[in-house]
Write a structure and sequence with these properties.
Layout: E1 5-8, H1 10-14, H2 23-34, E2 38-42, H3 51-56, E3 61-68, E4 73-77, E5 81-84, H4 89-102, E6 106-110, E7 115-117, H5 124-132, E8 137-139, E9 151-157, H6 160-174, E10 178-184, E11 187-192, H7 197-208, E12 215-219, H8 225-230, E13 233-236, H9 242-245, E14 250-251, H10 259-267
Length: 270
């Protein structure tokens, strides 16, 4: 069956190890768009963190879409939101208390792409996160934000060893009422219970009347697994995690070796 939509993770998938788009990636995305195949970036980042890549790839307009915050937000590139699931204030306050107790760095990201934390000693991981997402960092205690503040997700952003120590405990404490996922070695994220990339991709596909068998998903990490499982064709980068590769129909080259081009040429640009 012909592919009508390609869903692509951003970090370590769409981008190479230097955080840049390969020329080969730009070329095959353009060829797909010219054939009226939709290319949807599916990222844990907020919109501000992927906007320049969308612009570079010429993915624009009301009939093109982006999935951000690991599936919490779906919107057209004309600005219309199709889905917008927020984290409760109660959960946010519980996460703040947990972070203080366990001395782990954390932040929340709101609908305006702002990164907010009550940690006065902002660590290097949070600074990198802010830089990648073109965001500022605000120091605010939970009580300093209004009850209506639009929080999309909470992120434990710390060294790999620290997150390894707390991951199972965080899942146990927050996982029943929320979606908890290790998005990368330095990021353990907590979101609304109905959020993941697979749910978002399925929602968008229904809106566009595109069958799962007409979708190819490309990713590299655990937070990509739900969309890999939903799509008719699942592709994992050669640099992807072992967990993600178990869900792949095809393992392509790495993000530094034209892996995106290889996948497009194999399944899309036939």
């Amino acid at each position: 069956m012909m592919i009508r939509l390609v869903a692509i993770d951003v970090d370590d998938t769409l981008l190479n190890s230097h955080g840049r788009l390969l020329e080969s990636t730009k070329k095959v995305v353009k060829q797909a768009l010219d054939r009226e195949i939709k290319v949807v970036l599916c990222s844990g980042r907020p919109l501000a963190g992927v906007q320049h890549f969308l612009s570079d790839l010429k993915i624009t307009g009301d009939d093109q879409y982006v999935i951000t915050f690991n599936g919490a937000v779906i919107e057209s590139l004309g600005g219309s939101k199709l889905k917008d699931d927020r984290l409760s204030q109660t959960t946010y306050k519980q996460i703040d208390q947990y972070a203080q107790k366990h001395k782990v760095a954390y932040n929340i990201v709101d609908a305006d792409s702002q990164i907010i934390t009550s940690n006065h000693n902002v660590n290097r991981i949070t600074v990198i996160q802010a830089w990648e997402n073109d965001a500022g960092i605000l120091i605010r205690k939970p009580e300093e934000l209004s009850e209506n503040h639009h929080i999309i997700k909470a992120v434990f952003a710390d060294e790999t060893e620290k997150l390894d120590q707390i991951e199972q405990d965080v899942v146990a404490k927050f996982g029943q009422r929320n979606y908890v996922v290790r998005a990368a070695t330095n990021f353990l994220e907590v979101m609304h219970k109905d959020v993941n990339k697979g749910v978002a991709l399925e929602f968008l596909a229904r809106q566009l009347r595109i069958d799962a068998n007409e979708i190819m998903a490309i990713g590299d990490e655990r937070n990509d697994i739900p969309m890999l499982d939903f799509a008719g064709i699942s592709v994992v980068m050669g640099n992807g995690s072992n967990q993600a590769k178990k869900h792949a129909d095809y393992v392509t080259l790495t993000n530094d070796e034209n892996g995106i081009m290889r996948a497009f040429n194999k399944y899309v640009l036939l």
